[in-house]
Amino acid sequence: MKWQTLASTLFPEGHDIVEKDNFLRGTAQVGEQRIAIIGTTGHTSIGVEIALAQAEAILATMRDFPGRSLVILVDTQGQRLRHRDEMLGINRYMAHLGKCIDLARRHGHRVIGLVYDQALSGGFITSGLMADACYALPDAEIRVMGLPAMARITKVPEERLIELAKSNPVFAPGAENYLNMGGLEAIWHENLATCLAFALQTSVSVDIRSQRGMERGGRKMAYPVAQAVLGVNHVSKT
Questions:
Q1: Which architecture characterizes domain 3-137+188-204 according to CATH?
Q2: What local confidence, expressed as pLDDT, does residue 172 receive?
Q3: For residue 223, which of 178, 196, 214, 217 is within the disulfide window of CB 3.0 to 4.6 Å?
Q4: Cβ proximity of 50 and 22 under 8 Å
């Protein structure tokens, strides 16, 4: 879906979002509140420029409009794999972006992520997955690492990973699998404006993704292990 079509559907009460070099920025009206919008389009890769631009937009919102809700529109093929970006420290730029999102949350800004097209690797991890809650459209393509790349890194044959992906969402791409793992709060099928308004009203700053993954059967051990670690830490302090 083109971002212009998405924006018209999400914000029927109006918006002033503009695009510059595949970076989206603006505001929109949702009910009685004005919200801030940042995002990407064109399957763009996240280089140092876009990472810094998104971080600057978040900090500006915090400075000029304390408490204003923030929506992150995600369409990215991941971090830019160029020598220049690596030499400039793209990992630090993306970490800075993630920290700015977390800082906004800690200062009372609700943060909602929406994958409307493509979300891959680091570009997704430091944007949509940093939100209070992340949502997706049904046709969104989501994956953190493709199976061929996963095979090279883990040394597990790609054929074996393909077989595992049939029954285990951890190995499989797609919005439904990320929903089952708890990475997505929900998939929006219709009336996107209503879905967004509800998400803004009900979002919480507590990270419940591992709990969602256990409840949905996609990540069965993350939540119990985390709870066990917390219990051990509590006992050790007493």
A1: Alpha-Beta Complex (3.90)
A2: 67
A3: 214
A4: yes
